[in-house]
Structures are given as structure tokens and as C-alpha cells.
Specification:
11 helices; four-stranded antiparallel sheet; five-stranded antiparallel sheet; 4 domains; SH3 type barrels; alpha+beta
């Protein structure tokens, strides 16, 4: 992927504009002076600001502000007149341009964090996210809520090339990843396309593609990452296949044992009434759905991709809730689970 000099200059201007607006929230910046320093005409800077306004609208997570900005954009599209009232960057009382009152890059980032992490917690309680946010801003001593996330016994030792890995995810270029399990020889994923570093069930994972295969591994098993020379860039367009978009995959998964290469198979389980409430409130299995509810309990369905997902993702959950849960179908999977339990009982008297 080749970049033109004009594209790089424009990108630098846009970044500089955002930083300058953020550094001077009240006075803002003078467009003529900025245009002169950037060696472009003022109309170019005005187009840059228009582009930034549109981008900030698309990435904003504040629903009310985003709705107002989108309404103004649609009105401008019909009438040909842009409504300055709802712009993120607009003229101010000093005769310059600045961020709209109350908008900063830091606030926008905080809203993004709240939107991705805190808001789902508020919804799980069935309360208003705004109400939950007010308590979340209190000191730990005054906050009535406490949330405990899974913790690792020891912090990870960052491997050689960790910064290269982060850079490759952001810029989308392929790398060589060296993995090593204890007591085994190192393995190298050649031309690996990293997509995300994920935190799931208390562990960090790297997830990405090698050719068309989606691969995952514990971050603690990576010993080195090297950039390919020359750097190979790749494109990942989730619109071409939403089912394989990384955000879609991770949001739908309950653990990291899914396998996109295998055709999903269905499984049915019975959950006793004594623990049924937990399964109504939380997804413990992939694609979990309640099929039927009776006075004795609930019958639910889920999906699994292969034996690895059964052994690592499904069976451990079932064992955790024994004897109040059992596999209804398919019968061969139920028999496989029973046989493993019998072997365990016989080998550990």
C-alpha cells in the first residue's frame, strides 16, 4: 500500500488541527495563521475542518450530541446550508475556530470508555447509564458499586517486539509471530495479520489471520514479533463479510475457543430450576437460547464448533454446575461427557 506525499501532508494537518483545538479550548486557532504556517490556502483548512466535523460525528458516542449533529448534517444536505450550531469545530467569540463548548478529545475518550465498558454494566442492572455514571465518578469510598474483574496471578512479561505488534494492529501490516510452549520447540506464524489483543476470562490473547485461518494464542506464549521486510500491508473490510468481522465475533463469543473454520453444531442441555436463574441472566455457552421452561427447570440450546471447543469451552462449564445440569442431545456428546467423568472417578478414587 503506497502513500502519496499529499495524503501524508493532509493527515499531518488534520492531526495538528485536532491537537491545536484541544490545547486552546477557549481561544481556538486563527485559520489564516494556521493556513500560512501549513503553506496552504484558507479554503483548504476550511475543507479540513469540514472533514473533521463529519468524522467526529461518526465516531462520537454521546447519543444526544451525535443525533443533533446528524440532524444538522441531513438538513444541510437538503438545503445546501450548514448549521453551525451543532458543529464540533465552529467559530467562537474570539474570531477564531475552536471545539464546541464542553467538547475535548479527553472527554470524547472518556465517553468511549464509558460506552464500551460501563454502559453495558448499567444495562445489566436495568438502570439508566447516566444514573450509573454519576455514581461511577464518586471516590471508591463513596461509590456504592464495586466491580471485580478477573486477575492474573502475575503480570505478563512483555515479549520482544511487543511495540511492533501494537503498531502492526493499528497500521494493518503483517508480522512474523514466534510462539513457544513450555518444553516445546518454538513455532513461527509467518505472514500473520494481527487484529486484536483480547482480554477474556482473566487471560490475554492475540487474535488474527494467517491466510484465511483465524488463529488465537495466549499472549504469555509469544516470545518475539518481527515486522516483515518489506512491510506487507493488508486490508480488512468487515463490510464484505460482517459474520467474520472481529468485533462481531468477539461480541458473540463467550470464550476464546470458537473456530470459524468448522460448521457449528447444535447441542441441547437441561438446567435444573435451582440454577436456572443464572442461565437466564448470563450466557455461559455460545449462541445460548432458552427453548422451553417448566416447573422443573429450563431446556436450552447452544452451539459448538469442534472437539477443542467442547473440551475447553463447553465441558468445563457443565462440570462446574453438576449435578444440576446435563446434556440432552446429541446423545454421542452426552455419552462422551459421561465417559470422561467415569474415567476421572476411576483414576482418582
Amino acid at each position: 500500500m503506497a502513500y502519496h506525499s499529499a495524503d501524508i501532508k493532509k493527515l499531518k494537518r488534520l492531526i495538528t488541527l485536532l491537537l491545536r483545538f484541544d490545547a486552546a479550548p477557549k481561544t481556538g486557532i486563527n485559520l489564516q495563521q494556521f493556513a500560512a504556517a501549513a503553506n496552504v490556502n484558507i479554503r483548504t483548512i476550511q475543507r479540513d475542518i469540514q472533514l473533521l466535523n463529519d468524522c467526529l460525528c461518526l465516531t462520537d458516542t454521546n447519543k444526544k450530541r451525535k443525533a443533533k449533529a446528524e440532524k444538522a448534517r441531513q438538513t444541510a444536505k437538503k438545503t445546501g446550508k450548514r448549521n453551525a450550531e451543532f458543529r464540533y469545530i465552529k467559530p467562537n467569540g474570539y474570531g477564531n475556530y475552536s471545539f464546541a463548548e464542553g467538547y475535548t478529545l479527553a472527554n470524547a475518550q472518556q465517553e468511549k470508555i464509558f460506552h464500551d465498558t460501563i454502559e453495558p454494566l448499567a444495562k445489566s442492572l436495568g438502570i439508566s447509564p447516566t444514573f450509573f455514571r454519576a455514581y461511577w465518578r464518586l471516590s471508591p469510598q463513596d461509590n456504592p458499586f464495586f466491580i471485580k474483574f478477573p486477575q492474573l496471578a502475575e503480570p505478563l512479561q512483555l515479549f520482544k517486539g511487543f511495540e511492533i505488534l501494537l503498531d502492526s494492529i493499528q497500521k494493518q501490516y503483517a508480522v512474523n509471530v514466534t510462539r513457544q510452549l513450555k518444553g516445546k520447540k518454538p513455532l513461527v506464524w509467518q505472514n500473520f495479520k494481527p487484529l486484536k489483543i483480547c482480554f477474556s476470562e482473566g487471560f490475554w490473547y492475540l487474535i488474527g489471520y494467517q491466510q484465511s485461518q483465524l488463529l488465537k494464542c495466549h499472549l504469555e506464549n509469544i516470545v518475539n514479533v518481527e515486522a516483515k521486510k518489506p512491510v506487507r500491508y493488508f486490508e480488512y473490510n468487515e463490510e464484505q463479510d460482517p459474520q467474520k468481522a472481529i468485533e462481531y465475533i468477539l461480541n458473540k463469543s463467550v470464550n476464546m475457543w470458537f473456530n470459524l473454520q468448522s460448521v457449528p453444531q447444535k447441542m441441547e442441555l437441561f438446567v435444573d430450576k435451582s440454577i436456572a436463574g443464572y442461565f437466564k441472566q448470563k450466557f455461559y455457552f455460545p449462541q445460548q437460547k432458552i427453548l422451553k421452561e417448566t416447573a422443573e427447570g429450563i431446556r436450552l440450546s447452544c452451539q459448538y464448533s469442534d472437539n477443542l471447543e467442547l473440551e475447553k469451552g463447553i465441558f468445563p462449564v457443565i462440570r462446574k454446575w453438576l449435578p444440576h445440569i446435563y446434556i440432552v442431545a446429541p446423545s454421542k456428546i452426552a455419552q462422551q461427557f459421561k465417559q470422561e467423568l467415569q474415567e476421572y472417578i476411576q483414576s482418582h478414587p
